[in-house]
Amino acid sequence: MFRRAALSLLATAALAAGQAFAAGTPAGTTITNTATANYSVSGSPATAVSGSVAITVDELISVRVTSPASPTGVASPDTNRVVVFIVTNVGNGPESFTLAPGYNIAGDSFDPTAGSAGTLFLDVNGDGQYTAATDTPITGPITLNPDQSRQILLLANIPANQVDGSQGKATLTATSTTTGAAGAAPGTVLPGLGAGGVDAMVGVGPGGATDSGSDDVGTGIYQISGGLVTLAKTLLSVVDPFGNTCAVTSGNQSGCLVPGAVLEYRVAVTVTSAASGVAQSLVITDNVPANTTWVAGSIRVNGATRTDAADADNANCTGCGNGTGTMTVNLGNVAGTPAGVVTNIDYKVRIN
Amino acid sequence: MVNSRFLFAMVALSTALLATGAQAQTSPAGGVQLVNVAQKEIEVDEGGKKVRKLVDPGKMVPGDEVVYTITYANKGARPAERVVVVNPVPQHTRMRTSSAEGANTEIAYSVDGGKTYAAPDKLTVSTKDASGKAATRPAVAADFTHIRWTLKEPLAPGAGGFVRFRTVIQ
Q: With A18 labelled, which of A3, A75, B48, B143 sits at a CA distance of 20 to 30 A?
C-alpha cells in the first residue's frame, strides 16, 4: 500500500511542476497533505500514515491597472486622442470589474474632456489605436480570468489654447463588482462570495499593506506637443560650368561661383518630440533665389528624385524659372522622436 | 489506495475537523501514530509583548504560509526502530527555504518525487544553459518534492515528538 501511495504522490508532484499559475492557485482548490512513517518493530517493517489534512484555497480579489509609460502627444485643440491602459486580474479566480474614466484630475495644467466618440473602449485588435469600426465601447463590467489582461482605450478631447509642453491627466479606475469588495481593507473576508462559492478575500494593492487590491487606478498623460520642427538650409555642392566640383566648406569658392555654376541646396527638416508628438500636415516651401534659374527635375527627397509637376509625388516646383517660383514638398504627418526624425530635401539652381 | 483503514481515517478526519479545524489522525491499534496539522503563524500582543503563535489556518489565499506539523508517537509496547517520516510538499505549494525542523532527526530532501533523498547542498536539478545545452544547477527549496526525517534514535514505547515544515501557497 505504501509503495502505491508513494507512486501516486509522485504523479501529482509532476503535474504540479507542469502547471504555472502566475496569479496563484485557483480559488476553490483543495490542498491536501499526508505524512507517512516507515519503521520496524523487532525487525518487522511497519508503516504509519497520518490522516489527510486539507486546506481550501479561497479567492483572492486583486486587480492592477497599468498606466501608459509615456505621455500621448496631442495638439490644442484635439479630438478623440487615446491613452492606453492594461487591466489585469492578478487574483486567483474569475472576477468582474467596473471601469470608470476620470478626466478632472488634480495636479495637471488642463483637463481633457470625454472624447467626442465616447470614453472607454475595449481595444479589440490590441493595436493601441482607436478604430471606430473595430473597438467596442465599454458599457458594463468586464470579466477577467486569473492572469487575464485586457487593453482599454480612454478617449479624450483636448481643450483649445493650451501652451506647448503642458500636460493634462486622465485616469482609469477598475473596481471589483463583488459585494463589499470595493475599497475594503486587505484581508477583508467576504463569505461565500468567491468563485464557485468559496470565500473571497480582498488582496493587497500596489500601494502596500493598507491598499485595497479590490480596485486600482491608472493615470495617463496628454501633452501638448508643438514647435517640433526645425529647418536647416545648407549649400550641398557647387559645380562650375566646366563640370568641376568645388569644395563648399573652404570659404574660397570665388573661382567657382561664376555664372553657369550649379548650386545644390539642402533643406534638412528635423521633427523632434520628447513624447509621441506628431508634426501634422507638414509642408516645406523654398523660393527660387533671385539671379538664379531653377534646374528642372532636380528635387530629391531623402535621395529619391521627384518631378516638378504637381502630381502624385509629394513635391513640385510648378512655374519655377528665372528667379521665380516656389519649391514645395508636402511631408504630411511626421511623428517625432526624442532624437529627431530628419528629412533631407535637395534641389538645384543655376547662377545666371 | 482506498482501503478500509483509509476510509476509517477519513471518518476520523471529519470528526477532527469539527473539533479543531485542519487536523487529522489515524488510530490503528498500537505502533507509531502520526498526526498532521496545518496551521498559520500569527503575531499577537500579550501584555505589550509581541508573541508568535500557531493557530488554525482560517482563510488561506495564494502567498499565505502554511505551517505543517507532523506529530509522531509510539503507542505500542515495543520500541520502534529506524523511524523515517516522509511528507511530500503539497501540490500548489512550494517549500519555504530552510523551514524543515525536527529534533533528533536527520533531514533530507528529494527533488525527484521521492525516489532519492540527499542533503540540500548535494541536490541538483536539470536545466539548460544560455546556449540551450543540458546542464545542472544547485537545487533550491522550491525544487523540493519531498522531505524526509530520519530519527537518530529508536522510539521507545510512549515516546514521541514532532517535525515541521513551512510552505507558501502558490
A: A3
